[in-house]
Write a structure and sequence with these properties.
Layout lengths: L3 H14 L13 E5 L5 E6 L8 H10 L6 H4 L4 E4 L13 H8 L3 E4 L11 H7 L3 E3 L4 H9 L2 H9 L3 E9 L17 H12 L3 E5 H7 L18 E5 L17 E3 L4 H10 L4 E4 L3 H9 L5 E7 L24 E10 L5 E9 L3
Parallel strand pairs: 3-4, 4-5, 6-10, 6-11, 7-8, 7-10, 8-9
Antiparallel strand pairs: 1-2, 1-3, 11-13, 12-13
Length: about 350
C-alpha cells in the first residue's frame, strides 16, 4: 500500500506526465518523482518524446545535478514513484530499471505495468536485485496511469492507431438541418469540450467533403480563442483534389491521405508515429470507418433538439435488417451545461464485442 507521501508523489507524477505541451506518438507519456527516506521530494522528471531521456533518467539527472549537496547521497534508499513500469531495454536511451539500481534506490512504486514485451520486465529485474517494488495502487490512480497512454497501448496490441469518433447530433440523429446549417447544434460547453478532446489525440481526421464544405481549422483552442500549446496533426483523407485547410500561426500543414480506405489511412498515420486518431468528418467518413469496424470509441454530444429532416450523423452502414444492427456499449453519460443554461448530454460509447 502507498503511504501519504507516495500517494502525493504519484498524483504529481501523473500531472507532469500529462502536461498539455508534451508530444504524443510512438512513445508513452511517463512521470517520475523521487522521494528520500523521509518522504521529501528530491526531484521529478518526465518523458518528452522519442529520443529524449525517460522519466526516471530525467528525475535522476535533476537529483544528481541539484544545488543541494545532500540530494545525491539521499538517493540511496530513496523511493522512485513512476506512472509506468521502468523499462529493461536499450534503445536510443538506456534501461531505466538499471539506472534506478545504479542510483541505489530502495523502493519503486509502479502505477501501471508496461504492455510492451520488448521493454517489460522491470519489476522482476528490480525485485531480483532486492528492491522493494509496490504494485498495490489505488484503483483511481491505476486507472489514471493507464489512461495516459491509451493510444500508445492500442498501437502495441493492434498495430494501428486507436480511433475515437466524435459526433454532435440532435435527438432525432441529425447532424445538420435540411438547408445544411449545423452551427451550432450543441451548446458552448460541448463545443469547448471538443477542443479538450483534440488535445488528447495525435491526429484530427476529416474527409475531403468536410474539408471542402466547412474549411475547418481543426485546431485546439483555449476559451479566449488562442491556440493551445500542443496541437494535433491535421489530416484529410479522400481522392481527387484536396482542398486546403486554414493554417493559423502555430498549426502545421495538413497531411493528405489519398485514399478512401480507412485501413490504408490508419496504416499511413501509424507509420508516421501517430497513435490516436479523432474522427471529425461528415457522415461518409463516419460510415466508412464504422463499416470497416475501425472505430474504438464514440464521443457523442447529444443536443435536446429536434429537426425532423436534414443530414444524418452517419451515412449508409449497409444494414438492411434489425438483426444486423451495430450495438454500442454505454460507458459514461455526463450533462454539459453552458453559461446560457442549455444542457447537452455527452455519451461515451464503444462498439459492443460480437
Amino acid at each position: 500500500m502507498l503511504n501519504p507521501a507516495e500517494r502525493g508523489a504519484l498524483l504529481r507524477a501523473l500531472e507532469i506526465a500529462a502536461q498539455p505541451g508534451l508530444p504524443f506518438g510512438p512513445n508513452p507519456r511517463v512521470g517520475c518523482v523521487l522521494l528520500d527516506r523521509e518522504g521529501t521530494v528530491l526531484a521529478e522528471g518526465h518523458h518528452r518524446g522519442a529520443g529524449t531521456p525517460h522519466a526516471e533518467a530525467d528525475a535522476l539527472h535533476h537529483a544528481l545535478n541539484s544545488t543541494d549537496a545532500d540530494a545525491a547521497p539521499a538517493l540511496h534508499g530513496a523511493t522512485a514513484v513512476v506512472t509506468l513500469e521502468p523499462c529493461t531495454h536499450t534503445g536510443r536511451t538506456g534501461p531505466c530499471a538499471q539506472a534506478l539500481l545504479a542510483a541505489g534506490v530502495g523502493r519503486v512504486v509502479v502505477a501501471h505495468r508496461d504492455p510492451n514485451p520488448v521493454a517489460a520486465g522491470g519489476v522482476e529485474l528490480l525485485r531480483d536485485a532486492g528492491i522493494d517494488v509496490e504494485l498495490d495502487i489505488p484503483a483511481d490512480l491505476a486507472a489514471a496511469a493507464g489512461a495516459l497512454n491509451r493510444g500508445w497501448e492500442h498501437g502495441l496490441r493492434h498495430a494501428r492507431p486507436m480511433v475515437t469518433m466524435k459526433l454532435a447530433l440532435t435527438l432525432d440523429g441529425r447532424a445538420a438541418a435540411a438547408d445544411g446549417t449545423s452551427r451550432w447544434i450543441t451548446g458552448e460547453a460541448a463545443r469547448r469540450e471538443v477542443h479538450d478532446l483534440r488535445t488528447t489525440c495525435d491526429t484530427v481526421l476529416v474527409g475531403t467533403g468536410t474539408a471542402r464544405a466547412d474549411a475547418p481549422s481543426l485546431t485546439a483552442r483555449a476559451a479566449d480563442g488562442s491556440l493551445r500549446p500542443r496541437q494535433p496533426v491535421r489530416a484529410v483523407m479522400g481522392t481527387g483534389t484536396f482542398p486546403p485547410l486554414p493554417t493559423p500561426d502555430g498549426a502545421g500543414e495538413a497531411i493528405c491521405l489519398p485514399t478512401r480506405d480507412p485501413a490504408a489511412a490508419l496504416e499511413e498515420l501509424f507509420a508516421s508515429g501517430l497513435r490516436h486518431v479523432l474522427l471529425e468528418g461528415g457522415p461518409t467518413l463516419a460510415a466508412a470507418f464504422l463499416r470497416a469496424g475501425l472505430v474504438d470509441e464514440l464521443i457523442v454530444h447529444l443536443a435536446p433538439t429536434l429537426l425532423g429532416a436534414g443530414r444524418s450523423a452517419t451515412g449508409d452502414l449497409g444494414i438492411s435488417t434489425l438483426i444486423e444492427r451495430l450495438d454500442l456499449e454505454l460507458l459514461d453519460s455526463t450533462p454539459l451545461t453552458s453559461p446560457d443554461g442549455r444542457t447537452d448530454l455527452r455519451l461515451t460509447l464503444r462498439p459492443r464485442a460480437a
